[in-house]
Amino acid sequence: MTLLSVAQMNSQNDIEENFKIIETLIQQSKADGAELIVFPENFVCFATGKQCETAAQFESIQQRLEQLAHRYQLWIVAGTLPCPYRPDGSIIQDGRVRTVSLCISPERTEARYDKIHLFDVQVGDAVGGYQESKFFEPGTETVVATTPFGNIGLMVCYDLRFPELALKLRSQGANILTAPAAFTYTTGEMHWQLLLQARAMDSQCAVLGAAQQGWHGEKRQTWGHAGASNSRGQILAITAEEGAQLLTVPFDLDEQQQIRASMPLMQHRVLVQY
Q1: What are the tens digits of pLDDT across the range 99-140?
Q2: Which of 48, 57, 168, 209 is deepest in the core (most CB within 10 A)?
Q3: Per-residue confidence at 54, pLDDT binned at 50, 70, 90?
Q4: pLDDT band of 219, cuts 50, 70, 90
Q5: Are residues 154 and 77 in contact, defined by beta-carbon separation less than 8 angstroms?
Q6: Active-site residue 157, yes or no?
């Protein structure tokens, strides 16, 4: 059995202050005996309109996170960071950046996932409408990272609403799905926990939902409730507390294999044409 941690944060626009909280959560995760900590979306800097400014620091932030992973001998799913270039190194020319989730081992960055589904929706909150595609270029490739405790399928926030992605990651060998998120208060209250459970039930993977919580500036409010579902789609833990929180939950690869063998959903799946 492995212990895995899920973080909740109330990140603001001060990178150094956010890093203090990040290291405190890492220390707590290590003390809990966890092998992995998952951070939320925008965990290093949550500042509307400052994506390009933060993206210019992508490599230095990545190095700091690699150093923390090495110092504490802990795997990190580094929530999301804005990045000015694609995985092949080509610069994005239109002023947009990519939303990148990194999987970092104690030795190096092992995988990079660029968020595929962008949040272009109308929401009944103080912001009203969101158009991520105006500021972000979507990724195109699914990513599964190999770890000693299971394969991690990397997802981000809005990706949770698309079961096809979870199923694709399962077909590529994922045992765990990570979902760094910054759900709006409105949509999170309606669907966050349901989505954590639904994607786990669809894919028979553990789902780790790291979350932003609280106010970020005057208008943006996030739902929080960082949580984790097991491979049956049952909630293992979810927080209702405000601010920085940490949940540490068990993951048993042998148990997951038994669950999948007793209900072989992937073998039973039939593509129906209507």
Answers
A1: 999 999 999 999 999 999 999 888 777 676 788 999 999 999
A2: 209
A3: very high
A4: confident
A5: yes
A6: yes
Residue 70, Cβ neighbours under 10 Å: how many? Answer: 14
CA end-to-end span of the chain, whole Å? 43
Q: Which residues pair with 61 in a beta bridge?
A: none
Catalytic residue chosen out of the listed positions 45, 83, 103, 157? 157
Of 182, 179, 181, 188, the residue nearest 217 (C-alpha): 182
Per-residue b or e along 205-215, where b marks 16 or more CB atoms closer than 10 Å to that residue's CB:
bbbbbbbbbbe
Q: Which of 115, 132, 137, 205 is catalytic?
A: 115
CB of 205 closer than 8 Å to CB of 153: yes
Catalytic residue among 35, 41, 132, 137: 41
Residue written as tokens 């293992």? 236
**Tell me, what DSSP letter sits at residue 150?**
E
Count CB atoms within 10 A of the CB of residue 102: 25
Is residue 180 within 8 A of residue 39, CB to CB? The reply is yes
Task: Report which secondary-structure segment, H or E, holds 171.
Answer: helix 163-171
131: tokens are 């158009």
- Produce one character per residue of 235-264: b if its CB has 16 or more CB atoms within 10 Å, e if not: bbebbeeeebbbbbbebbbeebeebbeeee
Q: Could you give the C-alpha distances from 22 to 113, 221, 263, in angstroms and in order?
A: 20, 20, 39
